[in-house]
Amino acid sequence: METLAAISAGFILDLILGDPHSLPHPICLIGNLISFLERSLRKIFGFSDRGLLFGGGVLVLLVISTCFIVPYLILRAAALVSPWLAFGLETLMFYQIFATKCLRDESMKVYYALQKGDLPEARLMLSWIVGRDTKNLSEEEVTKGAVETIAENTADGIIAPMLYMFIGGAPLAFLYKGINTMDSMVGYKNEKYLYFGRCAAKLDDVANFIPARITGLVMILAAYFLNLDAKQAWKTFCRDRHNHLSPNSAMTESVAAGALNIQLGGGHFYFGKWVHKDTIGDDIRPVKPEDIATTNNLLYMTAVLSLILFALIYLLRIFPIA
Q: 175, CA 20 to 30 Å: which among 63, 113, 200, 302?
């Protein structure tokens, strides 16, 4: 019960407070660790394809070990002092792992810029939350980019860590965030990271495989509760959930596209190189900036429904029905 209470409290704190920029964030510390290890391991293992591949594997082992062991030891030490101290620290850890309000706030900056008619500002705001090149995007492409990143990050920024919290508490959730952060930093198919980041990228695909599919299904239910087109969301999910270079990203993007009756996906420039992607959804109506706000409502409803679902399963494990 303590785990359920700590997760719920952490989730609520995130919805209210978001990420306080004045305080050091654990994910930033993980990012600093990855950057330090990358520089060191490249020097140690060299720049041959085999050396880079092996160095990337060592990076994965060191990062996931650190991300699990550090919070585990902190919580164990706190429990020796007081169970309440351990509960408070784990609640704080859960709060720091969740990214619900942060994702909404950052994506809504794109929406507010579009509402003002400031396309250059909207492109800049979008560049902070996506990996694609944004400087030449149209208003429609900027809007699509924001919708896609909200939908994709609903899975790996909120629901996936929530699932791992229920399975293994803060240590396992931080292990997942270590995997996810590595993928966002080194998991690119370009000349620099094709070999060094391969292990991190593949592990991220595995870690998100089940959570992405759970999120997609819960998001369809969320679309129903929000009076969006849940029927079209289901249809698009069944048809287009594999229309992405990633095995997981289209699971939620397809639902968002169907629920909003818009078409997402398509190719984009990444670091100056064109990357082809299939489209997702049907071009039933034009994309509009308000779709960003609607997708954020879908994000919040999906997060709440997932918390309820996971909590019920957790309670049934503790109090099985005879």
A: 302
**Gap between the Cα atoms of 91 and 84, Å rounded:** 10
Amino acid present at 198: R
Question: How would DSSP label each residue in 169-230?
Answer: HHHHHHHHHHHHHHHHHH---STTTTTTTHHHHHHHHHHHHHHHHHHHHHHHHHHHHTTS-H
Q: Among residues 215, 275, 223, which one has the least CA distance to residue 250?
A: 215
Q: So what's the pLDDT on residue 276?
A: 62
pLDDT at 233: 96
How far is 294 from 226, CA to CA, in rounded Å? 9
- List C-alpha distances in Å: 219 to 13, 103, 175, 274: 22, 16, 25, 30
The per-residue pLDDT for 2 is: 86
Task: For residues 106 and 126, give the distance between their C-alpha atoms in angstroms, rounded to a whole number.
Answer: 8
Residues pairing with 274 in the sheet:
269
The whole-number pLDDT of residue 278 equals 80
CA distance 162 to 158: 6
- Which residues, including other chains, have CB under 8 Å from residue 10's CB and lie 6 or more apart? 90, 91, 92, 93, 94, 95, 96, 97, 98
- Stretches where the chain sits below pLDDT 70 are 22-23, 267-276, 321-322
Contact 297, 149 (CB under 8 A): no
Question: What pLDDT, on the 0 to 100 scale, is given for residue 268?
Answer: 62
Q: How far apart are CA 234 and CA 89, in angstroms?
A: 40
